[in-house]
Design goal:
There is one protein chain. This protein is an alpha/beta fold and 352 residues long. It is built from 13 helices and 13 strands. The strands form three sheets. It has a seven-stranded parallel β-sheet with strand order 5-6-7-8-9-10-11. It is globular.
């Protein structure tokens, strides 16, 4: 067995704003495993400034994984606790290697093209007119659940944008999720959430910054809008740490991004703890290319969640990997009539 990796720079079609800044590109690494003439591929992707493994020695760790690939998945996975995005890429690569088709990791009605996954439409921060145009576009595309990034604009402008939606669409017509990315201050978070509640929101994601567990716990108790934890989950590695976090904060929802929390195994451990405490959850991509998104989508379908998932990020990039994934009418589907094209990674060499 051999392994190597390829670094790839994903370019956003338009600079995409969050409360942590504006994204114009995203680095990702594709881990390829070879054995007996077969190949498997997985994606190791960072969100700069957010991923716990955004470290100077990241590529050194990938080199170590490739040098020790014959140690096997289980051994390597447990030695990569501090590198959850590499855990995810390794897990997907081994699943891909073992599969009959390296892109069908979890065969299902989804990969057959007969079932789809409801997803939310993602609306990025920007000037009010740009945000309104994104919202109108998502609604025209058939989405009945949208997720809006807030926390970076003037708050009154954000309220106006939500008012604009609710004047035209009731909560029965459009479900609205908002994501503050930790952008509210502890002292004014509850007041802002109370103002937001006028617009009948489904949930607010990560209203305040991480590691303020007492304050977040109080918010979850008092908030008129259900609170979802996202960044708060990063860096909780053991079952004991995860259990203590949820028991302390008692959120209404968890947002699970496999690249940030240790792949499918890490995500499934969070799901077990969420269900123990009667906490809802859904799955979201971490802006992976279509290779990582494909793996996450197939796994997510098998979880049988009825909620809209956060998997509509495949069209963000000018140079994404061409794949069978498509978004139609607010759903993610797998169109097997569309081929994969990995030439940007392998030049003239065939992947399989």
């Amino acid at each position: 067995m051999k392994a190597f990796y390829i670094k790839y720079n994903l370019q956003f079609k338009r600079p995409s704003g969050t409360s942590r800044g504006v994204l114009t590109y995203k680095d990702t690494w594709f881990l390829v495993i070879e054995e007996n003439g077969k190949r498997g591929i997985g994606e190791c992707g960072l969100l700069r400034g957010l991923s716990i493994d955004d470290r100077p020695d990241y590529e050194l760790k990938l080199q170590w994984v490739c040098a020790n690939i014959n140690s096997g998945f289980d051994n390597l996975y447990h030695l990569l606790l501090d590198f959850p995005s590499i855990q995810f890429g390794l897990e997907a690569a081994f699943l891909s290697l073992a599969a009959e088709n390296p892109f069908i990791l979890f065969p299902s009605k989804f990969t057959e093209g007969t079932r789809n996954i409801p997803i939310n439409g993602l609306v990025w921060m920007g000037d009010p007119e740009y945000m309104k145009s994104q919202i109108d576009e998502k609604l025209a595309d058939g989405f009945d659940c949208i997720k809006i990034k807030i926390g970076a604009l003037d708050f009154a402008k954000e309220l106006n944008i939500l008012s604009h939606i609710r004047k035209n669409y009731s909560e029965d017509q459009i479900e609205i999720r908002v994501d503050a990315n930790g952008g509210f201050g502890v002292t004014d978070a509850l007041h802002k959430i109370s103002q937001l509640s006028e617009f009948k929101l489904h949930s607010i994601e990560q209203p305040i910054a991480t590691n303020q567990h007492d304050s977040m716990s109080e918010l979850c108790k008092s908030s008129p809008i259900p609170i979802a934890l996202d960044e708060e989950l990063i860096g909780a590695f053991t079952s004991e740490q995860k259990d203590a976090l949820i028991e302390k904060i008692k959120p209404q929802y968890l947002i699970l991004k496999p690249s940030l929390i240790g792949g499918f195994q890490g995500s499934e451990s969070w799901i077990a703890i969420a269900e123990k405490y009667n906490v809802g959850w859904w799955i979201t991509s971490a802006l992976e290319s279509n290779i990582g998104l494909n793996a996450i989508a197939q796994w997510t379908f098998g979880l049988n969640s009825k909620m809209p998932q956060g998997l509509g990020t495949g069209a963000l990039y000018t140079n994404n990997i061409k794949s069978p994934l498509e978004v139609k009418n607010g759903k993610l589907l797998y169109n097997a009539d569309n081929d994969w094209n990995l030439k940007p990674l392998f030049k003239n060499e065939f992947f399989m």
